[in-house]
Amino acid sequence: xxxxxAFVLAVDKPVGPxxxxxxxxxxxxFKTKRVGHAGTLxxxxxxxxxxxxGEATKLVPFLTLDDKTYTGTITFGDETDSLDAAGVIVRSxxxxxxxxxxxxxxxxxxxxxxxxxxxxxxxxxxxxxPLHERVRNGEIVEAPEREVQLYRVEITLSEPQLATFELHVxxxxxxxxxxxxxxxxxxxxxxxxxxxxxxxxxxxxxDAIAGDLLRQRLPGDSRMEVEARMRPLLTALDGAIKxxxxxxxxxxxxxxxxxxxxxxxxxxxxxxxxMLTFGTTPVAMAERIGESIRVVRGFASESSAGAGRAHENKxxxxxxx
Length: 321
Known about the structure:
The protein is of the alpha+beta class.
């Protein structure tokens, strides 16, 4: 692993470090600054964090579109400024007598698309500054509302003031906000006390390497284990996005940034993204526009590998969701 390669790798992030910390571990372990991640996990949270290395950083915007599943716990009776156990209690309230049936019935009202107000302690930017930085600076901020989607929720009452849940959500969903909103709907307040991401798109916990392997810079025989879990650029999005193969003339046209008319264009919906390949070589990410295919992001060709290395300081990350 002495030279930069293009691959996607799932890491089981432990509780405590930030997502950026994990990116830093990967930079040291793989000896490149060109590392990004898809979907921020807060320090309190653990579980699947998808990393992209080398040219695969260009896949981050596509990887963040994937659905995610979580398990965790909510404690009722206290609300914190960050909406999780890491924050300071800002409000307390009596907790009514709850039941699993009542929890499930109330949680089900959040199924489907709905507006959700993000936490004020978050990476969302206003005026180019993350909200959590504004809060730390003593500013009074109002987090934005945005449309989110909840596909599935299973929730049980574990203790009189503690609920255990499993969620399947779309991109951009804040589980901390769900904990707050569920508590309000039950006539009390609450906060998230634990969170574990069990799936991020095509990547599950069974696909992930232990985060400590990266922190320790891949000690001993762990390099072979990590190599086995890497997904190359060509197959990183398999099952999530279509792949169209090009001939030599089409490949040249795409590399010149020109619109392409492809025999399989009708297989794509208007605006649908796809990967263009030449044999086993990824050429570009593209989308259907009318009856043509337009390049969204090109990959470095073998002849331009040097140019790709010249841009290794670039990194791509994504907010929670």
